[in-house]
């Protein structure tokens, strides 16, 4: 058990609220089936994924989100080619296809995925970069692998908060992944992800936090009406703009709205009252991607 894994104070009971309107059960089942079919098709195509045009991959990723009944609004654009570190805040499993819709990228994922039946070997063959979150000594090697991938011209997607938040609050960006961008001499592309309901109010229904199960989160999303995913692609930060990874991480950090005051140990504008970090075994069960940890 590790003491350095990042955590979040969010829980389903304290933070997640349903949307105002819901689909009928048959409608939700159809949405869920469509999502699963698209995901399965992607899994089956993983061995030949490197030969599929990036535009088709992006449309497939956006299609997964739309199949779940979530409208997508993307503003801005990422560089279509060349090494690029994509960094985003982390709320939901939906963030993964949304970030891949910005630009298909190699994801930084937890090493446990390798052991998953069937999906593990296929994901490994897709170019995913793995991080062993239980071994702090393995972190420099992970940073080196990310830097090598960036140097070869690949895009690498990272969620530097290292844990999911409900969307009313946010964590801070851990610095290690930014060292990889510095070492490789590539730009950093900050992306901000936000969810709203039909009335434009911030929505927490898509959040995948705390002891939530993936099925519970999936069902909450496909059952909701009027969800909108807003993806703001901010200006890329060119290499050499900031002197070190601390400054680079701070520059890429999305600001605005409520958040967690890490220094004071208090949240601002965030309901739920849960200030304790999650047990580490819960953190390891969160969604498959993980941002780089503090170093």
Give descriptors for this structure:
single chain, 295 residues, alpha/beta, 7-stranded mixed beta sheet, two-stranded antiparallel sheet, 9 strands, disordered C terminus
Describe the 3D structure.
The protein is of the alpha/beta class and 295 residues long. Helix content is 34%, strand content 15%. It contains 10 helices and 9 strands. The protein has a 7-stranded mixed β-sheet with strand order 1-7-6-2-5-3-4, with helices on both faces. Strands 8-9 form a two-stranded antiparallel sheet. Strand 3, helix 5 and strand 4 (129-131) form a beta-alpha-beta unit. Helix 3 packs antiparallel against helix 4 (95-102) and helix 7 (176-184) packs across helix 9 (245-252). The relative contact order is 0.24.
Short characterization:
The chain is an alpha/beta fold.
What percent strand? 5-15%
Spatial strand sequence of the major β-sheet: 1-7-6-2-5-3-4
Can you tell me the overall shape? globular
Order of helical and strand elements: HHHEEHEHEHEHEHEHEEH
Mean pLDDT: 80
Give the SSE map.
Blueprint: H1 12-15, H2 25-45, H3 54-67, E1 71-75, E2 84-88, H4 95-102, E3 106-110, H5 119-125, E4 129-131, H6 139-151, E5 155-158, H7 176-184, E6 188-196, H8 214-223, E7 228-233, H9 245-252, E8 259-261, E9 266-268, H10 280-284
Parallel strand pairs: 1-7, 2-5, 2-6, 3-4, 3-5
Antiparallel strand pairs: 6-7, 8-9
GO molecular function, one term: acyltransferase activity
Pathway: Lipid metabolism
Domain Phospholipid/glycerol acyltransferase: 84-196
């Amino acid at each position: 058990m590790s003491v350095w894994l990042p955590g979040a104070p969010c829980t389903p009971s304290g933070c997640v609220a349903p949307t105002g309107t819901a689909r009928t059960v048959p409608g939700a089942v159809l949405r869920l089936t469509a999502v699963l079919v698209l995901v399965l098709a992607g899994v089956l195509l993983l061995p030949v994924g490197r030969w599929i045009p990036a535009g088709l991959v992006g449309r497939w990723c956006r299609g997964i989100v739309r199949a779940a009944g979530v409208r997508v609004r993307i503003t801005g654009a990422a560089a279509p080619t060349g090494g690029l570190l994509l960094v985003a805040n982390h709320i939901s499993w939906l963030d993964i296809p949304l970030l891949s819709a910005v630009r298909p990228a190699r994801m930084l994922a937890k090493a446990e995925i390798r052991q998953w039946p069937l999906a593990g070997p296929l994901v490994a063959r897709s170019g995913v970069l793995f991080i062993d979150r239980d071994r702090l000594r393995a972190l420099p090697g992970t940073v080196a692998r990310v830097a090598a991938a960036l140097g070869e011209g690949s895009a690498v997607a990272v969620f530097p908060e290292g844990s999911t938040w409900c969307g009313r609050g946010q964590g801070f960006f851990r610095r290690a992944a930014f060292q990889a961008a510095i070492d490789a001499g590539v730009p950093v592309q900050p992306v901000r992800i936000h969810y709203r309901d039909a009335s434009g109010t911030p929505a927490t229904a898509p959040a995948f936090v705390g002891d939530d199960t993936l099925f519970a989160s999936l069902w909450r999303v496909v059952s909701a009406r009027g969800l909108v995913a807003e993806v703001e692609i901010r200006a890329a930060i060119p290499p050499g703009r900031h002197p070190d990874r601390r400054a680079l991480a701070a520059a890429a950090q999305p600001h605005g709205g409520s958040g967690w005051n890490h220094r004071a140990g208090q949240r601002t504008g965030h309901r739920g009252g849960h200030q304790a970090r999650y047990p580490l075994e819960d953190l390891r069960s969160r969604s498959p991607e993980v941002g780089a940890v503090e170093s």
